[in-house]
Amino acid sequence: MNAPQSIPENAKWVELNFGPQHPSTHGVLRLRAKLEGEIVRELEPIIGYLHRNAEKICELDYYCDAMIYFDRMDYVGAMNMEVGYLEAAEKLLGIPPPERAQWIRVIMAELNRIASHLVWAGAFGLDIGMLTPFFYCFVEREKILRIFAEACGSRQETNYMSIGGVYQDFNEKIIYMIEEFINQFPKKLEDIFNAFVKNDIFISRNKGIGILEPEVAIDYGVTGPMLRASGVEYDVRKAEPYLVYDKLNFDIPVSYKKDNLARFLVRFEEMRQSIKILKQAIKKIPDGPYFNPKAKKSLMIRLRGEGEVYARTESSKGEFGVYLVGDGGVKPYRVRVRSPTFKNLSVLPVLAKDQMIADMIAISGTIDLVFGEVDR
Amino acid sequence: MVEILEETKGKDGRKILKVAKENLIALLSELKSQGYNHLSLITGVDRKDRLEVVYHLHNMAENKYIVVKTETFDERVPSATSLFSSANWDEREQYDLMGIVFEGHPNLKRMFLPENWVGHPLRKNYDLSKVQYINMDENGEDYATFDPGDGW
Amino acid sequence: MNVLLRLQHFFAPLGHYASYVLAYFFETLFLVIFVMVVLIAMIYLFRKYMARLQLRIGPNRVGKFGLLQLIADSLKLVGKESILPSGRDDLPFRIAPVIVFMGLVMAFALLPYGSFYWIGSLTVTHSEVSLLLLFAAIAIMPIGEVLAGISSKNKYAIIGALRGVAKDISFEVPMMVSVLALVVMASARTQDPLDLSSLVSAQFIPFAIPQVIGLGVFFIAMVARASYSPFDMSESDSELVSGHSTEYTGMRFGMFYMGLFGSIFLGSMMVSILYLGAYNGPYDSYAGFIYLLIKTLILVFISFTIWLTVPRIRIDKFVNMGWKYLLPVSFANLILAGVLTLGLGI
To answer: Does the distance separating the beta carbons of C310 and A130 come in below 8 Å?
Structure first.
């Protein structure tokens, strides 16, 4: 470090680097904190350690091939990423998916939302020091991953959907596995919920910490469960319904308490609403083709797109948008991703100012950071 | 009233307003006073002879959406940070990857790549065959060089 | 009859002085072996118990039921490269793990263990002030942790050491005051209430019943001393990497780890001796040591369950609790003990 020439005015602040490699944080985040004792005075997040420039790579591939890079952005909620990209690409190329494919996509997206929130809940417990609920969450997630493995062969980076439909149809075994999961999950979810909420130390660690005012949240572009926990009722599935969400009956959880505990409760309630959606969807799937014949395998690399489209969907982290610009060729001209976690992370220096280190860790736990999506 | 050069509709049905870059801040503040308080996305598009900057604005209370486009021939655009705080990180990212300099930004430095990276990757004329290697020096700062050295 | 005399009879053919010297040596050696066996058993039980609580199995490959896992881990730790950071303060850095371990062994040497069939009394130290010596010995361990934190040139370690200091100071005083209440109650019946063996024999009902509040305060203080959840903020994983022991590798880290588990066992044993009647049990027997072990193991499993289910408290709320709640409560307990002893003659 350079030796200061004179005593700087922040001489009593210790600069501590919570470096990119850190045990049990959520990924490669580097936080440069200026501490005064135990209180954080300034915080600067430095990102880019997982930057793969997926936007450039997508310009070099055909429209159907560019989808696999979206799986690897939010790797715990890959199906939502695929839905997001395909909303934009199918509008640009003019190839809508048939009914059955849309219902299948909704089922997979909601299952992945539950899986993503379970990972978040387990990791949040680890941040505060509870070692055991992590394993219970992951046991439930394992059942969802087995459903994905049965449907398309891969557990996490699924690559299940394609332009104009899905890759493989549902068979009897998958529907049975999903129904079995839906029947036993609500009770397990209540067990995990009670393990957190009936613990006085957990409540006192999270109540009143990290208050996010709604005006600040909208100004910084925060969306998703973080915004809904600050009192703003905004969910893309209700504001601009895509796929078949307008035919489904579900509620959006909103809290007006604005603190860590509110964000925690909103995400758990979202899991319960996802189960409600799944129960309706698994009964209402129509029969029919599962892909659009205009986009069958032999024609896929010859699809051309012209114009520009911005499509937004609701991933497990917030509003996920894809802005596609096509110039008439077989490869996209510009792909721009609106990543919700990127905007959610930008509000961390505001939230963590003048808080203690332990609170800063708890607040960054409730943001639900997945670095594949921040850095793309 | 701010002079709008052109008003079109995109393929997804959203209204697109095109404006000259000198009137950009005036148009954005007028839209903000009409209720568009959520700046969702800032995109830079490299159209080979000019750089286009696209702003997506969203009105959460009334659920309306509008797209504002501007273009520049000399890579400088006024910054929207004074109006919307979400422009801060988005503009840093577009400066990093596309090379658009936003005038008036409080802290315009690279977001993902180290400070001394040469070039802006998302440009169409970026040479993909030249490989740069990233390392960390003794002070904990990342730096990029062209020669692989021992570690690679 | 006790261990020393049995050993001396065994070595008697060698002469008077030689037999005593050899008896003392082997007594100390057996004590150290006992401590090591206890630590190994504790860590093995912890790993199996934690695994079962977390819906997994735990070590089950090395040896039958994973019993040899700890020996494999110790061999691995011993074989690791000794890495010493370049900016360290050398002497405190090297001594700190040794201080922690020695404090632990010294504390184990001072406890009264009860009798065990043919061997007689297993107590190693006979002293009239063994209670004071015991608290002096367990006060050595936090010094080792703070030395480790400050002598590594690492900001995480320094913050961990500072939190450790705050924790120790806040909990030392309520613990001492609640033990003082015990001494008050025992001094009505014996001549030297500071001797742990007479403290134990002065109870006609275990001290847990009239001193419930003191038991609670003492147990919380023991959890804080041993630094496991909810009071492990000086080595919180997600915040401070590993707190005071961040820069330690290999067997030096192993000594801190053993210090943690040894403190859990030591704390449980102290609660059993002071409050739960130590080696007395429902059936009058020659094996009081077994009763002590059973009581200690029950408390150890309660401690493990608390460790695995409860999150970590923030440091300022913790210090708050120590000074604003536990200290007045333990003073009230002291007054209660005085009233019970002098007033009601219990």
So the answer is: yes
| Alpha-carbon span A237 to A80, nearest angstrom | 12
Residue A55: closest CA among A303, A370, A323: A323
Q: Which residues of chain B are in CATH 3.30.460.80 domains?
A: 6-107
pTM recorded for the entire structure: 0.89
CATH fold group of domain B6-107: Beta Polymerase; domain 2 (3.30.460)
Q: Which domain holds residue A313?
A: 54-375
pLDDT of A47 > 70? The answer is: yes
Question: To the nearest whole angstrom, how far is the Cα of A47 from the nearest Cα of chain B?
Answer: 6
Residue A67 near residue A161, CB atoms below 8 Å: yes
What pLDDT shows up at residue A108? 92
Q: Say whether residue B38 is in contact with chain A using an 8 A CB cutoff.
A: yes
Cα(B19)–Cα(B3) distance, integer angstroms: 7
Q: What is the CATH number of the domain that holds A129?
A: 1.10.645.10
What's the gap in Å between the CA of B111 and the closest CA on chain A? 7
What is the average per-residue pLDDT within B50-58?
90
The mean pLDDT value for A207-216 works out to 89
Counting the structural domains of chain A, the total is 1
Q: Which residue of A has its CA nearest to B63?
A: A239
Q: What is the mean pLDDT of residues C283-307?
A: 86
The CA distances from residue B135 to A27, A50, A288, B77, B130, in Å, are: 19, 14, 54, 32, 17
Q: Tell whether C89 is within 8 A of chain A (Cβ).
A: no
- What pLDDT, on a 0 to 100 scale, did the predictor assign at position C321? 84
Report yes or no on A121 lying in a domain.
yes
What's the whole-number mean pLDDT along residues B116-145? 84
pLDDT tens per residue across span B81-99 = 888 888 999 999 999 898 8
CB atoms within 10 A of CB B32: 17
In a domain, A324, yes or no: yes
Asked, for residue A335, whether it belongs to a domain, the answer is: yes
* A285 min Cα distance to partner chain C (Å): 35
Q: Is residue A38 part of a domain?
A: no
